[in-house]
Amino acid sequence: MPLSDDATFSVRALLVRGLIAGIVGGLLAFGFAAVFGEPSVERAIGLESAPAAHDHGDHATAPAEHEHAEEEVVSRGVQRTLGLATATGAYGLALGGLFALAFAVAYGRIGRLSPRGTVVAVGVGGFVAASLVPFLVYPPNPPAVGSPGTIGERTGLAFGMIGLSVLLAVLSVYCGRKLAARFDGWVATLLAGVGYVIVIGVLAAVLPGFDEVPPSFPASLLWDFRLASLGTQLTLWAGISLVFGVLLERGLRRESRSLMVTAG
Amino acid sequence: MSVSTSVSQPAVPLPVAVPLRAALPWAIFAGVLMLLVTYFVGAEQGAVSLVSGEWVHEFVHDGRHLLGFPCH
Ligand SMILES: [Zn+2]
């Protein structure tokens, strides 16, 4: 029995929901980052500027020169509040939009998952492919870590890793669907997942790595920062998924009456 | 839990795929826009620079670090 068009979602309506979810998720991530991330960022910046100040301490004219060289374009106070909120909000907005597009493609095309089930699948898959795996292959670094000479290469590889990982995840879902026709669903999903992990493992082994943490940098501070970074990204994905799911169910409940009438 | 294997539950709608063909130009435009925003948060005035100066990098600095992008 054909279902009427208003029983499905439109890409436009999904995008609006995704952007709203993205903003909310971004603000939640800002809250997490401000509370759990900023202390480690602040401590790392303290380490960054401390040795330089010592170098110039002996000369009477040097400190003025030093201050001039490190003149702040944006103050720390703005960076850790408005700047951080803008960054997480903008990134949340972007991820929310992409989340909606991914949902539009996935819903009704990966088995018989319900709308909420599809949201969970996109959310978990997105976090693993776009955040967790890139985090594990190229762990993020706090201020005072990383040599300026390799920033181009590191940026390219970080973005490339996110792109490749997402592409491979999509490919593995596609292969999983194909395999599901031959094996049962669990075996197909397992094979597709193992395939993804193996290719990522090979990539991680083949691609260049960067060991740029200074020996004097406190290991506990590095751990705190990286944990906070992963937590910020997890908060973002969880926030987007939850809000998107709620907005979706609301819209669906309103539409479900017309669906039942036309389907019955 | 609600594993929708049967159609007997009228309250659970069947998954109806979202029609994509008509919305494709839109979707691509939105996707590119989202990637551009990601670029500004993650890389502008770091490895690559479209806008002159340092203020974009400096403004999003803490977010760039904590969202996992290389900063400097
Ligand atoms: Zn930095």
Automatic annotation (TrEMBL), chain A:
Keywords: Membrane, Transmembrane, Transmembrane helix. This is Putative cobalt transporter CbtA. Pfam families: CbtA (PF09490). InterPro entries: CbtA_put (IPR012666). Signal peptide: none annotated. The chain crosses the membrane at residues 14-36, 82-107, 119-137, 157-174, 186-207, 227-248.
From TrEMBL, chain B:
InterPro entries: CbtB_put (IPR012667). The chain crosses the membrane at residues 23-42. Keywords: Membrane, Transmembrane, Transmembrane helix. It holds the Pfam family CbtB. It comes from the Bacteria. This is Putative cobalt transporter subunit CbtB. It comes from Herbihabitans rhizosphaerae.
